[in-house]
């Protein structure tokens, strides 16, 4: 089921959004350029970019959207299959099957199953590591313990917040196996520590993350309440690792710890702990199995859930489901560039909108650009000082400006202030295109619209 859901509408109408554009650009850089960029930015995703670089080298002639997204599709299918095996081991074959089906159906999982980012791969590795943990606790096998540590370390190197799964695992490990677990966990922490220390020096990259919103807290609380209600149906019995304890810990603890850390420095984004939904799926699958003893009843419940989610699933496969739509932005720029002289990105990081399809801005001078992303070993390129920028803008009669939609927070750096001030003072707005997640406007000196 997960594979079918992942392949359904995987191209999303040919659209791509800004985070995927970063993956696409980084994966196609030459290895020396990629390595130099990771030394300056986005090291937390370095291993993923290297993996995607290899895939684009191997399959460069294939549709780039498929190369970009199929790893996540396959990883999600693997996560659902592994979760089914885990549920089978903890609660029986029907509970395992239902858990795998529920994970495939969960909207956040469906979303990131079709994105060119690392989160689905991290989820698959955390689920696999959790399965190996249960196997190691049950059998005491050294090979299982070694595999557990190696797989979880791989997840952490793909995204360091996977290390929070260790806390969930610690809660579920029985006392008799605690020493063995510590021997496996210490190398994981030691292995991810250099990446964590190094990436902390690049923390300016996550400055866009806002404080905890009421919606995020309410959503998390609702999922936890659901998990607790399911766990209440599963009390009693069980082997050395009890499903309610493991699943609740996986569902709640990584997200909760990230939320608490966000009280000091905003870091919480739900996709960073996507793997926590494996705990949700385990609890729901086992609870449905307990409530619907007959196989037909359980399958009917799964089918009803799939039908209920169908409209939302279809919406996830439309370009409008993401923050922005780079295909629509490129088309608007093609229309706006007629008779224009230069292009300006407000803020500078929106230059990412033009990276997948540079032909859309062909013929337009990038007014603020100092060094291209590849040449400057940055994600979005470097820009000239504010004084030079002002002079360049005043020397450009007509400017195509790519901006965030109205109402978005405005950067307060001097170059961004100069961009807005010069446009407001010396130019008039001639025409505007509003597309998903962006506002493209043509500005001209007074009387030249």
Automatic annotation (TrEMBL):
Q: Does the keyword Cell membrane apply?
A: yes
An example of a Gene Ontology BP annotation on this entry?
Answer: response to iron(III) ion
GO MF terms listed in the record are: pentosyltransferase activity
- Can you tell which superkingdom this protein's organism belongs to? Bacteria
What is the protein's major site of localization?
membrane
User: Can you give the residue ranges of the Glycosyltransferase RgtA/B/C/D-like domain?
Assistant: 49-199
Which UniProt keywords are listed?
A: Cell membrane, Glycosyltransferase, Membrane, Transferase, Transmembrane, Transmembrane helix
Q: How does it sit in the membrane?
A: Multi-pass membrane protein
Q: Which residues form a coiled coil?
A: none
Q: Which residues cross the membrane?
A: 66-86, 119-138, 144-168, 180-200, 206-234, 241-260, 272-289, 296-314
Gene Ontology CC, one term: plasma membrane
Subcellular localization is given as: Cell membrane
Q: What is this protein called?
A: Mannosyltransferase
């Amino acid at each position: 089921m997960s594979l079918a859901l992942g392949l359904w509408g995987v191209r999303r109408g040919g659209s791509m959004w800004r985070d995927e554009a970063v993956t696409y650009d980084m994966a196609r850089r030459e290895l020396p350029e990629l390595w130099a960029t990771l030394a300056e930015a986005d090291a937390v995703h370095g291993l993923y970019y290297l993996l995607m670089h290899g895939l684009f080298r191997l399959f460069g002639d294939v549709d780039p959207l498929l190369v970009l997204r199929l790893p996540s599709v396959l990883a999600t299918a693997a996560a659902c299959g592994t979760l089914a095996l885990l549920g089978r081991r903890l609660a029986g074959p029907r509970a395992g099957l239902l858990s795998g089906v529920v994970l495939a159906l969960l909207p956040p999982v469906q979303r990131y199953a079709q994105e060119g980012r690392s989160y689905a791969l991290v989820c698959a590795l955390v689920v696999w590591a959790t399965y190996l943990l249960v196997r190691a606790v049950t059998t005491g096998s050294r090979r299982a313990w070694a595999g557990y540590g190696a797989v979880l370390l791989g997840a952490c190197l793909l995204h360091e917040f996977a290390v929070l799964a260790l806390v969930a695992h610690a809660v579920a490990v029985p006392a008799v196996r605690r020493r063995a677990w510590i021997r496996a966990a210490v190398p994981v922490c030691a292995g991810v520590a250099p990446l964590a220390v190094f990436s902390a020096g690049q923390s300016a990259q996550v400055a866009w993350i806002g404080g905890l919103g009421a919606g995020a807290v309410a959503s998390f609380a609702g999922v936890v309440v659901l998990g607790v209600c399911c766990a209440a149906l599963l009390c009693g019995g069980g082997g050395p690792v009890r499903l309610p304890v493991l699943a609740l810990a996986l569902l709640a603890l990584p997200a909760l710890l990230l939320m608490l850390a966000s009280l000091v420095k905003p870091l919480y984004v739900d996709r960073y702990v996507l793997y926590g939904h494996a705990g949700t799926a385990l609890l729901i699958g086992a609870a449905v199995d307990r409530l619907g003893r007959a196989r037909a009843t359980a399958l009917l419940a799964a089918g009803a859930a799939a039908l209920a989610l169908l409209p939302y699933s279809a919406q996830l496969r439309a370009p409008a489901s993401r923050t922005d739509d780079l295909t629509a932005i490129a088309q608007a720029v093609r229309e706006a560039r007629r008779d224009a002289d230069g292009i300006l990105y407000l803020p500078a990081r929106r230059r990412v909108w033009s990276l997948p399809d540079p032909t859309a801005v062909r013929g337009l001078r990038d007014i603020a650009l100092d060094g291209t992303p590849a040449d400057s070993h940055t994600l979005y390129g470097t820009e000239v000082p504010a004084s030079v920028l002002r002079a360049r803008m005043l020397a450009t009669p007509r400017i195509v400006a790519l901006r965030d939609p109205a109402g978005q927070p405005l950067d307060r750096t001097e170059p961004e202030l100069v961009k807005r001030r010069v446009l407001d003072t010396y130019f008039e707005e001639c025409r505007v295109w509003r597309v998903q997640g962006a506002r493209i406007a043509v500005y001209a000196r007074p009387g030249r619209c």
